[in-house]
Amino acid sequence: MAGGFVSQTPGVRNYNYKLTPKVFITCFIGAFGGLIFGYDLGISGGVTQMEPFLEEFFPAVHKKMKSAHENEYCRFDSQLLTLFTSSLYVAALISSLFASTITRVFGRKWSMFLGGFTFFVGSAFNGFAQNIAMLLIGRILLGFGVGFANQSVPVYLSEMAPPNLRGAFNNGFQVAIIFGIVVATIINYFTAQLEGNIGWRISLGLACVPAMMIMIGALVLPDTPNSLIERGFTEEAKKMLQSIRGTSEVDEEFQDLIDASEESKQVKHPWKNIMLPRYRPQLIMTCFIPFFQQLTGINVITFYAPVLFQTLGFGSKASLLSAMVTGIIELLCTFVSVFTVDRFGRRVLFLQGGIQMLISQIAIGVMIGVKYGTVGTGNIGKSEANLIVALICIYVAGFAWSWGPLGWLVPSEISPLEIRSAAQAINVAVNMFFTFLVAQLFLTMLCHMKFGLFFFFAVFVFIMTIFIYLMLPETKNVPIEEMNRVWKAHWFWGRFIPDEAVGVSAAEMQQKSV
Ligand code: BGC
After folding, report:
1. The model's pTM
2. Mean pLDDT over residues 173-190, rounded?
């Protein structure tokens, strides 16, 4: 396939490449990095519903759950239980900051390896847990693993991919996340039916499988040309670029990588530099995109779909089944993004998905409000409950082709090399912080805000859709080391980007294109 594309940004270059099996296989294996995050996201909600698990570690919650309940909204409210789920995200937040140095100094693959390794040890602690301490240590190790993987994998994929298929390749990370969630939900469905403690032990212990996949994957993966150049392996970088692009004529792209690396060498302290005015657009985006991604409210569904469905009056088996259905829908709909993100662009998906989520959230809020009111008592009939599940699926589909994959893609592709690792660490840290907050506060919020919770998230979805419309330039098809030109051309961000940052002058650009 030839690498021609029509760019909307003036001066953005056009590189030679073929879609090689090597780049495909490499990105396929690299995307495994999303599996550990997904497995964990999917497993916790189900495990915290298993009675033997609650009896063993959270007897008070178990008692409350069994006792007669007058108020559906407050049935599962327990800070300790949510701490089990959310402690992981605090650990991930901390490790992503360390991961940024490892990713930059030793290469992307070693962060991935470390991620797999710590996740592996964490899964053993959890699977064999005898007490709360083992359970929490396990969670924290899992969190370290997720932080390392989420910091390195999206950058790895974005750097390996040919520029005009970067969106599709990077979305492999989200596909792996959702695949992990779905597999975990299916495992929970079966283990929940086992007697005694064996069920939750299998669910938590099986986290070792995706962990091993990443560890082995990272060992066989090559590093990206960008990272090789950054670390001084210029010859190897050129060979790597030629082999992943399937042509020896990579001079132009290679030169851009060298230039980017030269420029990045001027920057001694990525953490200090990202605060400079010229990196303001990247700083704002890497803070706001993950913040907004979590404020879509998606993890209310991811973590608590079974709880939510039980609140709606479903039995516990039916709840797990419905959670499985929403997971499968999310997986299928993520492919819509894979196949369209490089054609229609990031903005179209963000805007369409945002509007779809907004409408469905309002409808869910209204329906639950009408049925349960503010008191939290009442009965939801079967057909109404099914309608709510359908609305949840529409909401999940909207997320699946917009904020889900793009929340990882866009931050990984908008920063120049000199601040890329730091920016991605900020992205992960902010994402994890708000994942933690939502996980920690959801049950309490549901208990106090009741159906208003859905309107709460809807307000944020409205704001983020406007934000994208006004502030995010289109980045499809733009080579990653050429991204400064996109910011320079933006109506608002342009003022922050100095002329030197776009490399060549306008006159030079014209000469080159002749
Ligand atoms: C988000 C997670 C979410 C997952 C599945 C990811 O992109 O970062 O917080 O749980 O998608 O919906």
Report:
1. 0.88
2. 94
